[in-house]
Amino acid sequence: QVQLVQSGAEVKKPGASVKVSCKASGYTFSNYYMHWVRQAPGQGLEWMGWINPNNGGTNYAQKFQGRVTMTRDTSISTAYMDLSRLRSDDTAVYYCARGKEWELPHWGQGTLVTVSS
Amino acid sequence: QSALTQPPSASGSPGQSVTISCTGTSTDVGGYNYVSWYQQHPGKAPKLMIYEVSKRPSGVPDRFSGSKSGDTASLTVSGLQAEDEADYYCTSYAGSNNLVFGGGTRLTVL
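^ Those are the sequences you sent over. The predicted structure of the assembly is below.
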């Protein structure tokens, strides 16, 4: 069965960067886009972008362009989301989600990133 | 990309039907048949309930159905059950390889 296991919670200071990992299993990693979605406390879901694990191609939501970098390591079936110049309003749960066409049938468990001085 | 518009809340009694709307524009909801709906219980990851406007993944009860008319998509939950109480989010493909979410609707089973 498809599983996406994310890295653990992080606490970062404003201005720092955070890198969240998402290890996939149960399917051929290169065959499906990996999306990243975040959810601030008590707020809705916000799409951040995707990476094509096959060739490393990416597409980022306009809001995050210049601050987010999505990468992958196909040798260990793992996708990464790096967010830089963190602000307090980046405090959120970050999810990876495997795409199929434009729906997201499989999600990781989420990683809480807290930005606080 | 602007978020899709959903009502903040909806409610119904057990056994009743409730419909949640998701309004976009001709560049997202109205332009493509790639509308999905997700259910999220508190503290849990979202779960895909409907994709491509009206298709149900295996395992999702047929009490959940989706439709679209123009720039507005809808999720209908029939025969409401207590476990349907959750937050519901719509998404749509928005062109240029982008996805956009709705603001979410909290469904309360009275």
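Chain A has a mean pLDDT of 97. The two ends of chain A are 40 Å apart (CA to CA).

Shout if you want it in another format.
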